[in-house]
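Pipeline run #58 for the internal structure catalog. This entry was flagged by the ingest filter as a single-chain record with no existing model, so it goes straight to prediction. Upstream metadata was stripped on purpose; only the residue string is passed forward. Reviewer on rotation: M.T. Logging verbosity set to normal.
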Amino acid sequence: MVDGGSGVDICPLSTLQRMEIGTERIRPNNVCVRAFDGIKRDTIGEIDLIFTIRPVDFEVTFQVLDMDTSYNFLLGRPWIHVVGVVPSTLHQIVKFEHEDQEIVVHGEDEQSIYKDPSVPCLEAREGS
């Protein structure tokens, strides 16, 4: 999920557990975030993960939260600004440039309201 209103990139603890990534990789920190429900929550810490959006690998520092979410990862302003992503929630796509090539990533086909058969949906690579 991409959220231009989020000041942090978030990885739920449950996502790390499903990916079988050990909690020993989480670095402690003193970050407190305000969740979508408005409640302040302390993070468990932060973790650096390699995030692949073909053909680019990004190293992203995620804040780890132990809470139920409707997403596996939340990419917020830190990632958006570093990469230079242009997100569109209306069209459910993000665009960015890599090596003079425009990369367009579409939302899930079932939920996407923007369908262009000439641009394929990029799928996540399995594995950790």
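catalog note: Confidence is low (pLDDT under 50) at residues 109-122.
catalog note: The first strand starts at residue 10 and ends at 12.
status: ready for reviewer M.T.
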